[in-house]
Amino acid sequence: MHRFNYHEIRTPVFEETALFARGIGEDTDIVGKEMYTFLDKGKTSLTLRPEMTAPVVRSYLQHNLQHQSPLQKLYYIAPMFRQERPQAGRLRQFHQFGMEAIGLDSPRLDAEVIALAVQIYTALDISFSLKINSVGDPGCRPAYRKELQAFLVSAFDDLSADSQRRMETNPLRVLDSKDPGDREVTKAAPSILDFLCEPCRTHFNDVLQLLDDIGVEYTVDPRLVRGLDYYTKTAFEFISADLGAQDALGGGGRYDNLAEQLGGKPTPAVGFAAGIERLLIVMEQNGFEFPESGIDVFLVALDDKSRQWAFRELYSLRSAGLAVDIDYAGRSIKAQMREANRQRARFVVIIGEEELATETASVKNMQVGEQHKVNFDDLQRFLVDNIPLAP
To answer: Phi and psi at residue 261, in whole multiples of 5°?
Structure first.
């Protein structure tokens, strides 16, 4: 995120329920079935956030971030909550990372957000495919909605109960149905790409050309509408064959009307979000070995005076930026060395009566087995020089 010049934003875990109903759409599964909603003591309806875009835009509007810069590039890493049946890739509390570019309608921002996601998946060695579509805008979507609705009426008896209900309130959501029967029926549905107005068509073609320019492969999928009502123009999704039925790694799109829906001025924006647990599932299936963390130094003390010295040195070394620990149980040197191994310490510093008398520590490099005698005055510099500090 920092490489792309996105800055972190953190919002509350809960928001007023109306934010999600207005922003996401009352006919979506999230609002209709999945939100954790409750009344506080003031009888205000609050909801644990099921997604992050609406809270970020609410914060953008509330704190007038547009006055700081015409373009705000923000990212988050945060827990979300949805009330659904837990299964592989679906949890009631899960974690997402994502980014939002708010303030400009440039197709270059659409391409940048997609490129950022591509770089993350590539860095994690995750194979994926990218699907992309344009869902138009309020200028051209009504004509498509009318045509799609007429098609769905003709196939009414073959649709699921959910899709029969949605075709009246939001027919585009029928294209997003996971029901096998619905997906079969809608194969013959009219394509929204045939109804795009000139500005939407130009924007979409520009995004595709920019992706071509930077070598990002994609498939145009006219059925792709995403599950949230606030999308306009670009919509995209990353798919992994390693996830089974829940195959979406993440996705996003442009939402130029969301700020206005939430009571602000018209503000173009584009964003992306991905589930972290789903990333971990794919990485584990691909045999990725997660690095085990360890400490830099373990101080082994052999008697009471040595333990007193070690406790003082502990804080000195920590202040120098090293990860350091000691034994608090007064165990034998053998047990302390086992503990150092268990904590994957890079170096062990051994202090006993002899070391205190000569003011010289015994320092063992646990990775290569070498042992050194280091003066107390030089100990901190020796360890700092031999251990790369965390950024």
So the answer is: -60, -30
